[in-house]
Automatic annotation (TrEMBL), chain A:
<keyword id="KW-0378">Hydrolase</keyword>
<dbReference type="InterPro" id="IPR001353">
    <property type="entry name" value="Proteasome_sua/b"/>
</dbReference>
<dbReference type="InterPro" id="IPR000426">
    <property type="entry name" value="Proteasome_asu_N"/>
</dbReference>
<comment type="function">
    <text>Component of the proteasome core, a large protease complex with broad specificity involved in protein degradation.</text>
</comment>
<dbReference type="GO" id="GO:0010498">
    <property type="term" value="P:proteasomal protein catabolic process"/>
</dbReference>
<protein>
    <recommendedName>
        <fullName>Proteasome subunit alpha</fullName>
    </recommendedName>
</protein>
<keyword id="KW-0647">Proteasome</keyword>
<dbReference type="Pfam" id="PF00227">
    <property type="entry name" value="Proteasome"/>
</dbReference>
<comment type="similarity">
    <text>Belongs to the peptidase T1A family.</text>
</comment>
UniProtKB/TrEMBL annotation, chain B:
<comment type="subunit">
    <text>The 20S proteasome core is composed of 14 alpha and 14 beta subunits that assemble into four stacked heptameric rings, resulting in a barrel-shaped structure. The two inner rings, each composed of seven catalytic beta subunits, are sandwiched by two outer rings, each composed of seven alpha subunits. The catalytic chamber with the active sites is on the inside of the barrel. Has a gated structure, the ends of the cylinder being occluded by the N-termini of the alpha-subunits. Is capped at one or both ends by the proteasome regulatory ATPase, PAN.</text>
</comment>
<feature type="region of interest" description="Disordered">
    <location>
        <begin position="1"/>
        <end position="45"/>
    </location>
</feature>
<dbReference type="GO" id="GO:0005737">
    <property type="term" value="C:cytoplasm"/>
</dbReference>
<dbReference type="InterPro" id="IPR001353">
    <property type="entry name" value="Proteasome_sua/b"/>
</dbReference>
<dbReference type="GO" id="GO:0004298">
    <property type="term" value="F:threonine-type endopeptidase activity"/>
</dbReference>
<protein>
    <recommendedName>
        <fullName>Proteasome subunit beta</fullName>
        <ecNumber>3.4.25.1</ecNumber>
    </recommendedName>
</protein>
<dbReference type="InterPro" id="IPR023333">
    <property type="entry name" value="Proteasome_suB-type"/>
</dbReference>
<keyword id="KW-0645">Protease</keyword>
<dbReference type="InterPro" id="IPR019983">
    <property type="entry name" value="Pept_T1A_Psome_bsu_arc"/>
</dbReference>
Amino acid sequence: MQGQSQQQAYDRGITIFSPDGRLYQVEYAREAVKRGTASVGLRTPDGVVLAANRQVSSPLMERSSVEKIHKADEHIGVASAGHVADARQLVDLARRRAQGEQLRYGQQIGVETLTRAVTDHIQEYTQTGGARPFGVALLVGGIEDGEPKLFETDPSGTDYEWKAAAIGGDRDVIQGYLEENYREDLDVDGGLELAVSALSEPEDEVVAAEDVDVATITTEDESFQSVDDDRLESIIAEIETETEESDE
Amino acid sequence: MNNWTGASGPQGDADPSPYDPELGSLPNGAQGDEHGDTVNKTGTTTIGITTDDGVVIATDMRASLGGRFVSNKDVQKVEQIHPTGALTLVGSVGGAQSFIRTLRSEVNLYESRRGETMPIEALATLAGNFARGGPFRAINPILGGVDSEGSHVYSIDPAGGVMADDYTVTGSGMQLAYGLLEQEYEEGLSLDEAQSVAARAIKSAVERDTGSGNGVFLAEVTEEGVDIQGHNDFDAVI
């Protein structure tokens, strides 16, 4: 009895180390991320592309209520995978920090600085009694000093910088696709195509326009812009033509 | 002090308010104004001039009690607060010194966290916020610095106003110094020419303003850093 309850204690309640040095609660939080639909981010010399899969569970649900991509500040966007409610908390933190930077220094916050603020916050929830880690991963993309930047946060509070990255369900498949097809000299349109193709990779066909949420932040206007359905349709049509051609 | 509600973690610790220093706490805000004549004040004339190659800052060397008694004849009223930035002490000596220490620690934290030095405009905004916040009320410094955007001079008023200019003067001798600057300042001055103009403006103030005197400190701020030299005698620098 005693022995069993002690063993179980390593994956219950507060986050504490198991004897082999693992934090089970954090690992479970990573599993929660994998249960979410995927998001993809990539940077090109002209800007950052964020794309998220937002399939809804019923045709009766309003699609616009499924938010996977958020504007953090004029020049920074965030894509999430995992618990949406947890993501909203972190996005709101990011928004407040971005405005706090304006108040404190009168300047736009850097993408890396903002990511660090978010991961510092996430980390606190892996080390505090009674707290539950955040069951969400984020891709934070934007323009810093005129350069496109892309970072990932994970439930442990670690941040990584990427050229192109996937989070959420089927991450390995999508990341593999990105590794194979990413080129440093993509333009933003090429980036959009690659991001949507990558999201489609786990399925047999290209995703439908209504099932994805896509945004760009380009170096030209340094402004978060959602990609509208018309543009998405033409990107998807382009991908379908290319796949047909390569099939022939 | 204010209603900033920054993000709080699981233990309820909030991000620092944009109006408060991150380290240390603000002393009682009203303090600066009330001590009046008994506080050591730098009656003072301080000048900042921008040039293409950097910034020149000049200050007199007198500390006084209410402008009526010279309490120190060898005061350095310009201090480095940034790798390529300096601030003048104007008004309450205690307020100005505390302001400088606070800004230095903010500059150092910013750099060690982000791997880049704080832009001068950001430093000016922060300095204005702190002045506005209250504890440093009886000060009116000049901030001069160089960054990737070029040379900057700001005057920071006691209520937190921050104004950029090509050249600016604060302190009790400001009218005297401005009188000379309005004749002598022109665009395209070299660093050496600007130093000479600044030193002559300080001399004008020192001769007629009882709160200013005893020589001149000159700071040269360039991409390379901050070089500060004191001169009891004006002949060497005019």
